[in-house]
Amino acid sequence: MSDSARRPRVLSGMQPTGRMHIGHYFGALRNFVRMQDEFEAFYCVVDLHALTTFENPAELWPNVMAMVADWLAAGIDPEKATIFVQSRVPEVTELHWLLSCTTPISWLERVPTFKEKSEQHPDNVNYALLGYPVLQAADILLYGADKVPVGEDQLAHLELTREIVRRFHHRFGPIFREPAAVLTDTPRIMGLDGVNKMSKSRDNYIPMTGDPDQIRALIGQAFTDQTRVYRRDPGHPELCNVCQLHRLFSADYEAIWEGERSAATGCVDTKKLLAERVIAHFEPMRRRRQEIDARPGYVEGVLERGAERAREVARDTLAQVKAAVGLR
Ligand code: TRP
């Protein structure tokens, strides 16, 4: 690319799932916030990707808005990062097409997420589901990302993106940067059921900007160490998800664990303490979220400016790619 002296770029995308939970925060948003100072950052709501499995059109936009409001509440700063909605930069679908012309179907059929989603939605194994990682590659390459913070489940997509780049370069010459995945240093966050990853679809989550009583009630229902039947039984912090969650909020978590082991404290105490720490930790974000909600048009304005900036970069990349493949 012509702008080789530019700052390194980071890009990530997230499907519009509405309000964020603490798994999103520690697994992704915290990294997004950290990286916006060092990198030129692009954070994208991938609404086109959502359509591959999404069912209810009426929920799509409210989910975009609620998610972006939580991103801003978490500390993503629109003065530093470009925050935008994927479908408002239609160049991405054009690049997706150009990349798809050199991507073998066999590569896509091997992708684990394709197999999983085909099993989850057997009545809707659509064409776009197969092409999903090509659209993701287009997101990454359109904005020239050097680094892509993602969860472990996305590593196969990142590897595929690099393969798409190499094949494309082999045919048409060098245009893109090869992106690298950045994994979070937070261990996988389990949901309130204690056995599945925290997720909205399983309804086992602690909302990031939820109100304090809601958070208390949810944590009150969390599963703990299932081997501890009576209050006097010793607890096993390794087996207790509430104890595991304390690691994220408490420098003194070892002492909390010791209380469980010796049965000095019960599960109820440990849950109550967790709830208070979660509430305190996210209090500034809850406040910021309230401020954002009180400013009509604010989030929409952020997204408009974001799309404008994103389109400048997108047009530039797309022009180069089109020329390389011979389109005039
Ligand atoms: N596939 C990602 C997910 O399901 C979302 C995504 C789309 C993405 N485009 C991206 C992530 C680009 C990183 C970079 O979580």
Please provide a written account of the structure:
With 328 residues, the chain is mostly helical. Helix content is 55%, strand content 7%. It is built from 13 helices and five strands. The chain has helices at 22-38, 47-50, 57-74, 91-100, 105-109, 112-120, 127-142, 155-172, 212-220, 241-249, 253-261, 267-293, 298-325, and strands spanning 9-14, 40-45, 81-85, 147-149, 180-182. The chain has a three-stranded parallel beta sheet with strand order 1-2-3, sandwiched between helices. Strands 4-5 form a two-stranded parallel sheet. Strand 1, helix 1 (22-38) and strand 2 (40-45) form a beta-alpha-beta unit. Helix 3 (57-74) crosses helix 12 (267-293) and helix 4 crosses helix 7. The radius of gyration is 22 Å and the shape is globular. Tryptophan binds next to strand 1 and helix 7. Tryptophan binds at residues 11-15, 46, 49, 136, 139-140, 148, 150, 154, 157.
